[in-house]
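Hi R.,

As promised on Friday, here is the backbone we talked about, encoded as structure tokens. Could you run it through your design pipeline when you get a chance and send me back a sequence?
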């Protein structure tokens, strides 16, 4: 397993922990029931949250649309590299 896949799994686990009970390794501060979540709101919140992480780590301010454009550029770059 390469480092990128390992990090992706760790990020996914962190997000999925929002839906697990605390005794099952869920997030002790935030817990949501999947059946109560609106998918559009949730995935929009994921993009906003990822942008918050990006801003914190890079100190570069991008609005959410600019951030998603950057994400798309990175995915295309990755796809072309792994072609």
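Update: got your reply. Pasting your designed sequence below so it's all in one thread:
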């Amino acid at each position: 397993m390469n480092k990128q896949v390992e990090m992706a799994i760790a990020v996914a686990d962190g997000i999925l922990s929002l839906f697990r009970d605390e005794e099952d390794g869920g997030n002790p501060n935030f817990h949501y029931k999947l059946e109560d979540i609106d998918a559009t709101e949730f995935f929009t919140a994921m993009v906003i949250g990822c942008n918050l992480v990006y801003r914190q780590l890079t100190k570069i301010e991008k609005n959410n649309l600019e951030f998603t454009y950057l994400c798309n550029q990175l995915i295309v770059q990755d796809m072309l590299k792994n072609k």
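One thing I noticed while checking it: The mean pLDDT is 92.

Thanks again,
M.
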